[in-house]
From TrEMBL:
Keywords per UniProt: Transferase, Tricarboxylic acid cycle
Any one GO cellular component localisation term in the record: cytoplasm
Taxonomic lineage from the root: Bacteria, Pseudomonadati, Thermodesulfobacteriota, Desulfobulbia, Desulfobulbales
UniProt KW Transferase keyword: yes
Active site: H305, D362
Organism: Desulforhopalus singaporensis
GO biological process per UniProt: tricarboxylic acid cycle
Family indicated by similarity: Belongs to the citrate synthase family.
Reactions catalysed, as given in the entry: oxaloacetate + acetyl-CoA + H2O = citrate + CoA + H(+)
The name this protein goes by in its record: Citrate synthase
Length: 427
């Protein structure tokens, strides 16, 4: 039975349809609100606005639930490869053995990048942030494949696979060029995660030793970051994609949005905060006190979350991975010691517990990436590689949506009312 919400305005009643999702979420459909009443809604930051109906990711911030296509993220982190998770998000189901093999072959076949791209990388200023470079280079990929028909399903699949393969290679390439090192090419005998670590750290002088613990930590990191509903960067991909731009441009916009310190840059901000605490003599208790002070703009990075009002389910998994990795690699790092002490104090401090300021995934992922050896300025790039399957899946879903519309938010104007132009001599 169809349900409605009634709006009373100027003595008239207007019925707004109530939409119910598969997990029982309810939403008021206001798509005809302005046409019927002349009103719009105001929701700064879109905290209470559903921009689409999606079958990709379900999350419940109150209960700490996150599922990809219905599968709990805990199960994927424990049992799935990153390639399987990417296939699941993009295609709506886990691949069988033959499908996974074909997918792996396509990733290997598309993992090399055009040699002209090396010239692009080398001409960026040395101080350029890797995220700015990556966003530009992903957009530039369209120039190398101008004949693609973005409405043909087979060619779309090739484009999506090409992005998954090449972004990983380009990320490692940018790091190597920034260090002045020779490039390391992908190897068909290595897994997706092994290949990335080898391309990053292998040198002719010191061959990289692929450690199982580091590969597993990277696998889990990428799976946990693969999608997260309609966040800032995903919404950017959908909004830019709604103009029917090519996939490369839409993904480039997502990378740019992810760059922000309040979004994907948070894991880098965690390490920078720990470095600041270390420079101040390791006095993390001062940071705790400042975070509690309402009059102090200081924020304890890596604690709390916009959506989760309980422990971030991804943080639980990443904490376990973090502990296992540090123990296996026997790493001695004063920054990691500060992080563990800070975590222990915050978890037992009533202020943080009462305000739901639990350590989030950014807190632990920054520590994990540092332990693997990833440079701090590459942290957000690692996030982008992980989030790529989600962005692609969201773009594809929006393209296939028969109810597609060009995204065009409204506004409530609060500027000057009409007045006449004043000639310059009279101003």
């Amino acid at each position: 039975m169809e349900e409605f919400v009634t709006l009373n305005y100027k003595g008239k009643e207007f019925s707004l349809p109530l939409i119910t999702g598969s997990e029982g979420e309810k939403a008021v459909d206001i798509s005809r609100l302005r046409a019927e009443t002349g009103l719009i809604t105001l929701d700064v930051g879109y905290a209470n606005t559903g921009s689409c109906q999606s079958a990709i990711t379900f999350m419940d911030g109150e209960k700490g639930i996150l599922r990809y296509r219905g599968i709990p993220v805990e199960q994927l982190a424990e049992k799935s490869t990153f390639k399987e998770t990417a296939y699941l998000l993009i295609n709506g189901r886990l691949p069988n053995r033959d499908e996974l093999t074909r997918f792996s072959v396509m990733l290997n076949d598309n993992s090399l990048v055009h040699t002209d791209l090396k010239v692009f990388f080398q001409n960026f200023p040395r101080a350029s942030h890797p995220m700015g470079i990556l966003s530009s280079m992903v957009n530039a990929l369209r120039s190398f494949y101008p004949s693609l028909n973005d409405t043909h399903e087979e060619e779309i699949n090739i484009t999506m696979t090409r992005l998954l393969a090449k972004v990983r290679t380009m990320a490692a390439m940018s790091y190597k060029i920034s260090r002045g090192h020779e490039l390391v090419f992908p190897r068909p005998d290595l897994t997706y995660c092994e290949n990335f670590l080898n391309m990053m750290f292998d040198t002719p002088v010191t061959p990289y030793e692929i450690k199982r613990e580091a590969v597993n930590a990277l696998r889990v990191f990428w799976i946990l970051h693969a999608d997260h509903e309609q966040n800032c960067s995903t919404s950017s991909v959908r909004m830019v994609g709604s103009a029917r731009v090519n996939l490369y441009a839409a993904i480039s916009s997502g990378i740019a949005a992810l760059w922000g310190p309040l979004h994907g840059g948070a894991n880098q901000a965690v390490i920078e905060m720990l470095e600041t605490i270390q420079k101040e003599g390791g006095n993390f208790k001062n940071a705790i006190d400042r975070a509690k002070d309402k009059n102090d703009p200081f924020r304890l990075m890596g604690f709390g979350h916009r959506i989760y009002k309980t422990y971030d389910p991804r943080a639980k998994i990443m904490k376990k991975m973090c502990d296992e990795l540090l123990e296996a690699l026997q790493i001695t790092d004063p920054l990691l010691d500060i992080a563990r002490e800070l975590e222990e104090v915050a978890l037992n401090d009533s202020y943080f517990v009462d305000h739901n300021l639990y350590p989030n995934i950014d807190f632990y992922s920054g520590i994990v990436l540092r332990a693997i050896g990833i440079p701090t300025n590459m942290f957000t790039v690692m996030f982008a590689i992980g989030r790529l399957p989600g962005w692609i899946a969201q773009w594809k879903e929006s393209m296939d949506d028969p109810k597609w519309k060009l995204s065009r938010p409204r506004q409530v104007y609060v500027g000057n009312t009409e007045y006449d132009y004043v000639p310059i001599h009279a101003r």
